Amino acid sequence: MVRFQKTLGHTTSRRSSQHGFTLIELLTVMSLIGILSMLSISSFRVYRSEASNSLAKATVNSGAKAAEAGITSTEGSLPSVALYQQSSGGGISNASANQVLPGMILPEDVKLRVSHDPTCTDENCQSHFIQVSHCRGTKYTQYLRFGDGQSLMLDQPGIGCP
Description:
The chain has two helices and nine strands. By secondary structure, it is an alpha+beta fold.
């Protein structure tokens, strides 16, 4: 209830002894909280996707090192691997692919595709192909090794684990 007081010829209003916030103040605070939470959720999604893409890239780097170790340890006599795909974490379950990538351990939520052509000996063909994508990522990373020993690492836009 608002009471009016007359002081020195001016009329002023004064609140009674009620304390609290007005509806406008509450709605303003609630809308600010909503805006901040929307911004933080969208930032979290971006960071999560970037972390997933980084994990896929690290897995491809690990695979490239494992492939080089396989070539070195077997003196180039690796078995042929047609395009092999694995979507479960842990060790590689295909025996030929495991020889091409010795000791390779896949993290969870990662999709691996690998192939190896031991007959490839020039720059016009791929001797190794490794592709890794993370299920929550927005890119996939490829490692290509050509018959002449040159290699290439590519990041491509993709859709995680289709």
